Amino acid sequence: MFWGTENKQEQKSLTTLDEQKLATFYPKINAFLDQINQIILDKNQQTKLALACLLAGGHVLFEDLPGLGKTTLSSALSHLAGLKFQRIQFTNDMLASDVIGVNMFNQKEHHFEFKSGPIFTQILLADEINRCSPKTQSALLEAMEESYVTVDGVRYALPQPFWVIATQNPLFQSGTYALPESQLDRFLMRLSLGFPSRHAEKLLLQQQSRHDLIAILEHVFLEAEILALQNYVNEIHVSEHLLDYILDLAEESRKNRHGLSTRGVLALKKAAQAYALIEQRTFVTPDDVQAVFVAVVAHRIGLSDAEAKQLLQQVEIQ
């Protein structure tokens, strides 16, 4: 049975009240996308997926050649979100304590004090994350999964919301380290901007600096609004038919390869819910699952984007 009108009507009947609650947020979502698309030209789908990542409470990894706008997009996202922001430029000599912080002895008070690192923020831009050693990369694991860090047996909570925007350069470039699978699995999505179109690149040449444009942008969201939207994402309805479709995709991924984990299945569902919210719906459709599938799944199971798209086409929508 294919997804039909009766399924869509079922979702609408279940979510009318939710639509009324969310209606006040839709203009801000549109404003967010409109402004960021003035900074990053001709990449509307990538910016929409990045916003879905934020609303889903997941972290995003941008992978591209240097100079294609990864850091610019990351800076614009953090600016428009209206959250506390820190940037770390990763290098091969960086230590875990440079990210998390360290206990330092206070000679005046005669006791150790914890000096927090730049990870204690709401949006962390981890720039060129794969230029640091795997040991330093692993310092982010607990923070990305649980929003806590542990130093000398003491656990410290991170501010909420907590969002990691990481960029990495291709592995064929010198001085890069491959992100371990456990680290990749902490990213809800992996996105790539690619080269701009000729028209977009000409506009870049004609317009003022992207950094100057970002500086004059106004915050779109308040902290409380981001938290509210993240809670609303959990209320976006996913029918039993859609759950079966997601499980069919996971099952297909597990044939003759390292397949999608249960964490990955949960991530796919959450990303589809966030995408549905951005599309101003309170129920998920197959289009939402398909829109986020490659970004959520490919990096988790070692597929190229083309291979992930092929996998998606092999599963029929029920």
Description:
- With 318 residues, this protein is α/β, with parallel strands linked by helices.
- It has a single domain, classed as P-loop containing nucleotide triphosphate hydrolases (Rossmann fold).
- The protein has 16 helices and nine strands.
- The protein has helices at residues 5-14, 16-22, 26-39, 44-55, 70-81, 96-100, 134-137, 141-146, 181-184, 198-206, 210-215, 223-235, 240-253, 262-278, 286-297, 305-313, and strands at residues 59-63, 85-89, 101-106, 111-116, 123-127, 148-151, 154-157, 163-168, 187-191.
- Strands 2-5-8-1-9 form a five-stranded parallel β-sheet.
- Helix 3 (26-39) runs antiparallel to helix 5 (70-81) and helix 4 packs across helix 14.
- The longest helix has 17 residues, at 262-278.
- It is globular, with a radius of gyration of 20 Å.
- The N and C termini lie close together (5 Å).
- Residues 12-17 have low confidence and may be disordered.
Report the count of strand segments: 9
Characterize the largest beta sheet: strand count, sense, and whether it forms a barrel.
5 strands, parallel
CATH-defined superfamily: P-loop containing nucleotide triphosphate hydrolases
Distance between the termini: 5 Å
Supply Rg.
20 Å
